[in-house]
Amino acid sequence: MKLSEIYKQDKTVLSFEIFPPKAAEELKNIDETLEMLCDLNPAYISVTFGAGGSSNNNKTIEICKKIKEKYHVEPVAHLTCLSYDKPEIDEFCKELEAAGIENILALRGDVNPNAPAKGVFKYASDLIEYVKPRTNFCIAGACYPECHLESGDRVTDLRNLKTKVDAGAEVLLSQLFFDNKAFFDMVEGARIAGIDVPITPGIMPCLTVKSIQRMVSTCGATLPENFKKIVERYEDKPEAFLDAGLAYAISQIIDLLVSGCDGIHLYTMNRPAAVKRICDGIKNII
Ligand code: FAD
What we know:
This protein is α/β, with parallel strands linked by helices. 46% of the residues lie in helices and 15% in strands. The chain has twelve helices and eight strands. It is globular. Flavin-adenine dinucleotide (FAD) is lined by residues 48-49, 51, 78, 80, 105, 107-110, 123-125, 142, 148, 150-151, 157, 160, 163-164, 173, 175, 202.
């Protein structure tokens, strides 16, 4: 089923993101992860894609196929474009179509010195413009509650987001954030800019202090004062930190849902037990 149809159904859309494990050993365990995640009844599961030249990218397609055929859950394949040319994108699309995948998350990808840009697709909107008329995929795009790190300002970021939607993105999935106000402000700006597609908040439960430090440095997420207090108080108590991190994610989700969001996209980090604790905490809400 296409994402655009999923978001038209009259229910809250719970979805997950996973990544293809790098190690062969972990890849063998992907079934264990998928079994637990699929038991939680997600509307779809998205699978990340390497920034370029990554041998893991074929695993993205392989895992999407497994999600669909073995677990009967809708997969969404991420697809980046910065370091690919048109024949390479054509090839990925052909493989995705052959695997029966109906949805892609079209991304530019991060600038990566190990996978130099080919200069063909500069932005995600270029990829969407290219893929849209050539395929039947429902295409989603990324959005940034705290602005993309390379964006000069919020207005420019929203203008570029509008270009992405005008090119054919039918659903937007957000970057992780810890302060809901940033998400609400972005949605308000997007609606004023005439963006009328579903905008789904991406929630990353904080499971370890290390993971927060990584998130702050890679995507520039701001930590609100109440979250900083959690870090200060429990940084040397990993189990207490995990409890507090999960409770924080649940409170963020409840606030988003009561404020009218029609979906929640959980960055699972392939940690299904933690995701189950969150889903148990909201099972009568979602
Ligand atoms: P774009 O939309 O192209 O934006 C990139 C920058 O260019 C922004 O600053 C934007 O404002 C600007 N811009 C856009 N259009 C124009 C224009 N026409 N003129 C001038 N400036 C413009 N990365 C991966 O490698 N693999 C993944 O699987 C992956 N999954 C992700 C999933 C989600 C939900 C999110 C939010 C991000 C994901 N990323 C992934 C990271 C993403 O690739 C990076 O954030 C990347 O830097 C930007 O990708 P984008 O598609 O948002 O780029």
